[in-house]
Every structure is written in C-alpha cells, then in structure tokens.
Amino acid sequence: MTARPDPAASAATDTAAAETGRRVVRTMRRALRWSLPEILFWLVAFASIFLLPGQHLILTEIAILAVFALSIDLILGYAGIVSLGHAAMYGAGAYAAGLYAIHVTGEPLTGLVVGAAAGAVIAFATSFLLLRGGDLTRLMVTLGVAAVLFEIANKAYRITGGADGLQGIWMDPILGRFDFDLAGHTGYVYCLIVLFLLFLLARLVVNSPFGISLKAIRENPLRASAVGIPVNPRLVAIYTLAGAYAGVAGALFTHTQQFISLDALAFQKSADGLLVLIIGGTGYLYGGMIGALAYKVIQDVIANITPQYWLFWIGLLMVVFVLWGRDKPQRIFATLAARLRHRREGRE
Amino acid sequence: MVTLIFDGLAYGMLLFVLSCGLAVTLGLMNFINLAHGAFAMAGGYATVILTNQMGMPFLWTLPLAFIVAAVAGFVLERTLYVRMYARSDLDQVLFTIGLVFMAVSGMDWLMGSQQQILHLPSFLLGRVEVLGVNIGIYRAFLIAVCGVLAIVLQLLITRTRFGSRLRAAVDDQRVAHGVGIPVKTVFAVTFAVGSGLAGLGGALGAEILGLTPNFPLEFLIYFLIVVSVGGTSSMLGPLYASILLGLADVLGKYYIPTLGSFMIYAVLVIVLVVRPQGLFARAA
Q1: Is this prediction's ipTM beyond 0.85?
Q2: Which residue of A has its CA nearest to B269?
C-alpha cells in the first residue's frame, strides 16, 4: 500500500518552497544593488578624466594594474586559488595582442578579444594541472607555467623579439575615430571604460549562483562537492575567466605602451599583482582598484626618495604588511561603515 | 654519455643538499618558505667573500657557509618566522616573497649584480680518467660530500632521539608538546639546520650553478619541484627527486640544447599527471 500525498499538505509545501525561493531571489538581488560608496567610487573614477588631465599616463598604468588585480581577485578572493604565475596569462595576452597588431591589423577592439582569448586558452590548458594536488602543487604549477612561457618568449626571439622586447606595434584609432595620443588621454579613457565593463561583468558573475558556489568551494571543497557542486569544472571555469581578464590587461598594456618586454611574463609581475590585490583586500572586487592606486602612489613616493632598489622596498612592504595583519585596512573600513549604518538607522 | 650521467648525478646531489632543508620545513612543518634560496645565496656569498677576498682555503669556508646560513635562519625563525606558522598559506607566501625580494636587492646593493667567480683550489680542478670514464674532480667531490650528507641526514631523522622528536612534533604539535617535547626548540633547530644545509649547498654550488643576487628566484622552482615530486616521508624521496631532476636537466640541455631548459618542467608535468601526490609520498 502506498501513501497518498495529502493535497493540502503538498500545496502548503509548495507555497513554503515558493516563499523560500522568493527569499533567495531577494537576497541575491540585494547583493546586486548599488550602494552609495560604490556609485561615488565610479563617479570619482570617471571624474578623474576631466579633473586630472596631467596624470593620465600614470592613471592608465593604474587602470591596467587594476584589471590585472581584478583577475587575480576572481581566483584568489572567490575561488581561493593562490597563484604565483598569473603573469603567464597577462604576458600571453600582451604578446598575442602585440603580434596581432603587427601581423594582422592595428584595430584595438579585436586586439582586446585576441588578448582575452590568449589568456583564456593558457588558463584553460593549465587549469587541469592545477586541479591535481594541494596548495603547494598549485604554487609550483603556476610558477612553472609562467617560467615556461617566459623561456619560450625568450627563446623564440624571431617572433617575440626575445630580451629586446617586441617592437614596431602601431595601433589604429579606436572605433576608427579616437587616436592614441602622446599625453595618454585616449588611452586612459579606453582603459577606464574597459575596466568598468569588466568590473560590471565580474560583479554579475560573483553574485550569481555560480559565484556563490565558488565561495562555497573556497570555504570547504569537500562539503561543496557533498552538496552537489561540481568542484573541478567550476574551478576550471573561473580560472579560464580570470585568464581572459589577465589577457585583456596584457592587451591594454600593449595597446597603450606599444611595446612589450619580457617583464610582462616575469615572476615580479605575478608578485606585483598579488601584492596590489592584497593591499586593497580580497574578495570584494574593489580591492584590486584601491590596491593599484595605493601601490602606484607608494611607488611614486619611494621613487622620489630613492630611485634605486625598488624591489627592496616592495619586499619590506610585503613583510611588514603581512606581519601587521593584511586584513586590517579592510576591517577598519568595515567597522567604519557599520558604525555609519548604525547611526543612520538610529536616526530613522 | 657516462660522463654526462656523472655530471647529472653531481648536479642532482647538489640540488638535494640545497633543497633538503625545504623538504623538512615545507614538507614536514608545512611552512611555505619561498625564501629558502636566500639562505643558499647567503652561504654562497659567504664562501666567495672568504676565499676570494680573505684568502681562506675553500674547504675551510664550507663549514663557515653552513654556520652563516644557519645563524641567519635561526635568528629569522625566532624573530619573524615563528609568528607566521599559524597563518594562512597566502600570508606565508607573501611574507616569504617579501623576504626574497629584500634579500635579492640587498645582495645587489652589497655585492653588485654581476656573477661571482669562485676560485677553487687547484686540487679540485681538472679531470681524471677512471675505468675509461672522464670525470671532473670537483663533480666527484660534490657527489662524495652530498652523498655522505644524505646518509647522515637520513640516519639523523630515522635513528636519533632528535629525529623522532621532530617527527612527533610534525605529526601532532599539541600532543608532542603535551608529552614534554620542546616543540619550539625542535622547530628552531630544524629550521636552522635546514637553512645551514642550504647555505652549504649554495657554497658548493657557487661554481657550477652561477651565483648572482637573483639566485633565490632562479632556483625557487627547482626547490619546489624537488619537494613536491619527492614527497616528504623520508629524506630518500627528495634525494631521488633531486637526482632525477639533475639528470633530466643535464641530459636535456646536452642532447636538445634549444629545448633542454624545458626538461625539468616536462618531468614535473609527467609526475603530476601520473602521481599527483608525489613520487614517493607517504601512504595517506
């Protein structure tokens, strides 16, 4: 004898399920809503186009660094993968965009796509090695992949220019209208818009069910797989997406500098990106941008005091920052924000 | 061919001495110490300065290279590293990369960026013919020294009281502490000895590896490969891994000069695909 489901009870379960569903949708939408600080941040960013016309060259560098750090945030802040070789994808994007500009066309927008594709292909191909073994293996694999690409770019000097760098890149105007100028105005607006669009996409991705499943994997891969999250495919997907982002950052570098050196693939590039992100804080997307700004300001200040041995100061910065507690700036902001919100709610 | 294998063997043994300290700190103590190469560099420069500028006999500088690196390791462990043991992997990575950067540019500032040339004593130079095989004397010397070190280390870890204390402390810190093992001291001594061995390796390798301030970054990937390919169950895993890597590198660079520098990565990928837990990993 089989138990007949009671129609009334089943209807109740249905409404309860529907209610839960609605609540989930509401919670997820809330994360997508724009808060005041976020709107202010982007207003200030776009206002810099008009307010700081003399600083556009360094602001371009900051924007590119921010795209690169955003890419690292996707894998480190959301998926918890520590990478020592993110320059691999950055360099791949840079060289791909450079070679495309030399041999095919100097049109920048398709160049961006080529750069993104190059980064994504490298990331996708190497992601399968990442899935094997633990954190130590990941460090080694990412480091190794970047080292291999560096060696290839160094050895294949007929194609890449080797240690002399890739020269002779000429870019066409963007959309056929906006020419890259020496003062870097076009370049900055171009990079800022690309950064903004990539940020919007990343914001959608990390707040989607996909992004939330990544956080679950970061917190506990075993439990994540127990509740039915396909851990490995998700990691491959986010690593590939982050690779595309890094590729775009590389392509932006190529387009605005019109020169690529082996530095784009060097270990220092990866370490820089990691440091930038850590300065700004991981896991909330703005870390890369705030970090890039802070990093360039610090670099500028130190370069004014002592132009040599930048590497030493950057090392010291990393050591002190970690010893002091790298989440402290973020925590201070969080406490301030909480206090503000508290006061506002008290007034209402 | 046999000469090449001999060279590869010497190179591998050298890699073992350089990275066995890391096998203990990273493999056993689970501390991601990417600054390991900096201690090797310290030892290498100590030997170069002592022999070339102060005229000490090369063999006498070897123990001093060990001591310099060990003292540096001990001091850093007590003051800085000890605060990082309980931190996340990311913190350890950033912290030790910071140390590497400081060591690299600090050494650049002190000694300049050019490669240091070590003047070896004449009795270690030259080659001899043994059973029809052409052997470099210094290579043979390396194999002898490193081989003895490997055996001593293996015995030290498996047979002595200190070794069992270390293994206990690594397996479960709290319990080890509870039964009266001075965990902190054991870790500090282990770290110092590991750094000292790296310093000795740097001194021995100054002539064939090439000593520049960039040394810690250049050889980082080799150290990591040795540790993760070798596994950490005993000193034998890293030893086999080092020899495998040394042979692959030397033979690869000789037979396929254009692609030779990729051989170690090929080895790495193959091992990862076939045995992701390392060639000689402890059964989980």
Answers
A1: no
A2: A129
